[in-house]
TrEMBL record:
Pfam families: Pkinase. This is Protein kinase domain-containing protein. It comes from Umbelopsis vinacea. Keywords: ATP-binding, Nucleotide-binding. Residues 21-101 are annotated as: Disordered.
C-alpha cells in the first residue's frame, strides 16, 4: 500500500545549558524536522478520562477486525450507519427519517473560527457547548474522500481510528466522546480538549526540572501499559502526539495509525505490518523488516526516544540505521553502556533507558518492566500538578481558549 509523507512541526530551538547536555562529545541532530510516513497522516492535537479495566474495548472491535461473510437478506437492504444500529429500508422509507449520525451544530454548537492544527487527512478545531456551562471540546474533522481513494479504504481508516480511540478509557489516554457530521458534511470525532498544550510546545517553551520530566515520562508509560493490556499499540509515540490538561496531566493522542495486535478472540499476539509513524522515533527493526514487527516493542523504543527529546530538546539521531553517524556512535557505546548523553544520569535511569533502547526487539524491555524499574518506582506522579509534599509541578502551558 502506498504511503503518504508529511512533514511535522519544526523543532528549531536550542539545547538547554545543562550538565547532561554538556557531557555530549558531539552535538546531536537538531529537531529541525520530523518526517512522518504513515498510511493516513493525521496530527490530532488535543483532548479527561477515568480508568476502567483493560480489554473492555476488544469485543467492540469485533465487527471491524473480524469481518463476517454473511449478507443481508434480499428483502432488507441496510443503509450505512457505521457507528450505530443499521436501519433497514423498511424502517427508513420516507424523507423525514432522522440521520444516522447527528450534526455537530445541533449537538455541540458552532466551531470557533480557524483551526488548532491541520494534517494530511484532518483539521482540528474547537467548539464551545454554549448550553452546557460553555464546555470546550476538540473536534477532529476528517477531510472528505480523495478522488483516487476507494470508499472501502477511506471508511476503513476512519472507522479504525474512531473505534479504537472511542473505547479507550484511562486518565493518560485522550477520551473520544462522539462522532458527528459538521456543516461541510465531514465526519468529525469530538474529543475532550486539553488546554495545556502538547508536549512539544511545553518542552520548547518551559524549562522543566528532572522531577517534572520523570513525572511526564511515567504518565506516558502508564498510558501505554493500559493500551498494550487492551490489545492496542499506538505506533506513533512522539512529543507532538502527547497533550497536557490545564493542570499538567499527560494524555496520549492521535490514533491514526494505531493497531489491534490481539483481540479478545485471539490466544496470542500478532505482529504489525507497514512502516507507519515518524522516522526518528522508529526502532531499528522497522528499517530492516518493516512489514513484520512487534508493535509493542516499537512503542517502547519510541517512548525512550521521546524522553531523550524531552530532556535534551533534540533528537538523538535521525534514523536508527548504521549510515546515520549519531546512531553509529550509539551502537559503538552499547557494549560498555557508556553513551555520552546518559553519562550524567543515575544508574537507575541508565538501566531503564538502555533496556528500552535494546536494539533487539525480543529482549527489549516491555512497558511493564520499565514501570517496575528502580527509577520509575522512585518517581512520584503528581495529581493534576499537586504533590503529596504540597509542592506543585508546572509541566503545562497556561490555558488558552
Amino acid at each position: 500500500m502506498p504511503t503518504e509523507v508529511a512533514t511535522a512541526t519544526a523543532w528549531n530551538f536550542q539545547i538547554p545549558a545543562t550538565a547532561s547536555a554538556e557531557a555530549m562529545d558531539e552535538p546531536c541532530p537538531e529537531l529541525s524536522s520530523s518526517v512522518s510516513t504513515r498510511d493516513s497522516a493525521i496530527d490530532a492535537r488535543s483532548i479527561h478520562s477515568t480508568y476502567t479495566p483493560p480489554r473492555k474495548m476488544t469485543s467492540k472491535l469485533q465487527g471491524l477486525f473480524h469481518h463476517s461473510n454473511t449478507e443481508p437478506s434480499p428483502g432488507k437492504r441496510h443503509s450505512m450507519n457505521l457507528f450505530g444500529k443499521s436501519r433497514s429500508s423498511s424502517q427508513s422509507s420516507g424523507s423525514s427519517s432522522p440521520p444516522a449520525i447527528p450534526s455537530l451544530s445541533q449537538k455541540y454548537g458552532s466551531c470557533k473560527k480557524g483551526f488548532v492544527s491541520e494534517g494530511a487527512t484532518a483539521v482540528i478545531r474547537l467548539v464551545t457547548k454554549s448550553n452546557c456551562c460553555s464546555d470546550v471540546y476538540c473536534v477532529k474533522a476528517f477531510h472528505k474522500k480523495a478522488k483516487d481513494d476507494s470508499d472501502r479504504s477511506y471508511m476503513k481508516r476512519m472507522t479504525s481510528e474512531f473505534c479504537i480511540s472511542s473505547t479507550l478509557r484511562h486518565e493518560n489516554v485522550v477520551k473520544t466522546l462522539d462522532l458527528v457530521i459538521d456543516e461541510k458534511g465531514r465526519y468529525c470525532a469530538v474529543m475532550e480538549y486539553c488546554s495545556g498544550g502538547d508536549l512539544f510546545e511545553v518542552v520548547r517553551e518551559r524549562s522543566l526540572t528532572d522531577e517534572e520530566l520523570a513525572c511526564l515520562f511515567k504518565q506516558l508509560l502508564r498510558g501505554l501499559q493500559y493500551m498494550h493490556e487492551s490489545g492496542v499499540v499506538h505506533r506513533d509515540i512522539k512529543p507532538e502526539n502527547l497533550v497536557l490538561t490545564s493542570c499538567g496531566t499527560l494524555k496520549i493522542a492521535d490514533f491514526g495509525v494505531s493497531d489491534v495486535f490481539q483481540s479478545c478472540f485471539e490466544t496470542a499476539p500478532r505482529n504489525c505490518r507497514g512502516a507507519v509513524g515518524s522516522h526518528p522515533y522508529h526502532p531499528p527493526e522497522l528499517f530492516e523488516h518493516g512489514n513484520d514487527y512487534d508493535g509493542r516493542a516499537m512503542d517502547v523504543w519510541s517512548a525512550a526516544i521521546t524522553f531523550y527529546c524531552m530532556k535534551f530538546r533534540r533528537l538523538p539521531f535521525l534514523s536508527a540505521t548504521k549510515d546515520d553517524a549519531s546512531y553509529a556512535e550509539f551502537l559503538t557505546a552499547l557494549p560498555n553502556l557508556d553513551w555520552a548523553p546518559f553519562a550524567n544520569m543515575s544508574q537507575a535511569q541508565q538501566d531503564c533507558l538502555y533496556g528500552m533502547l535494546d536494539i533487539n526487539p525480543k529482549t527489549r524491555w516491555t512497558i511493564k518492566q520499565a514501570l517496575e524499574s528502580e527509577w520509575m518506582q522512585s518517581v512520584e506522579v503528581c495529581q493534576d500538578g499537586a504533590l503529596k509534599s504540597g509542592w506543585k509541578h508546572y509541566h503545562y502551558l497556561p490555558t488558552r481558549r
